[in-house]
Give the backbone structure.
Amino acid sequence: MKSLQGRGRFARLATGIVAIIAVGAVVSACGNSGLTLARQACTHVDRSITLLHQAQQQPTVYEGTRLDQQAYDALRAAMPIAAEAAYHDGQWQALMTSLSESDRVPEATLVPSLQAECSMATNSIFDQAPPPSSIPAPSGT
């Protein structure tokens, strides 16, 4: 009889641990909002812009080119994070699109739009409603 009581306690303890882990996983998944991810991507974007400005002020071509490459690498590191942000919240689609142009358009050209999009991420309120859209809602057939 004592053995059954021990097993029952162990089963309740194991069930409690599994429940705590499951709740933690659900809560952490909720924390991966589009805004949080956009802010993470913008950290890379800000670093990239800083490196780009430093590259433009270098006295040697070698040092400027090296910093340009680091700026490009930082910008490209932001891409998958911005794509995930856009997946979770469509309002970050513009950020993802601007970053995806970085392989075809010089970064200096993208800086104004990237700064504006990252300003939105920095100044957004958590769970802010997305901006209004001119796209009509799908018809309910």
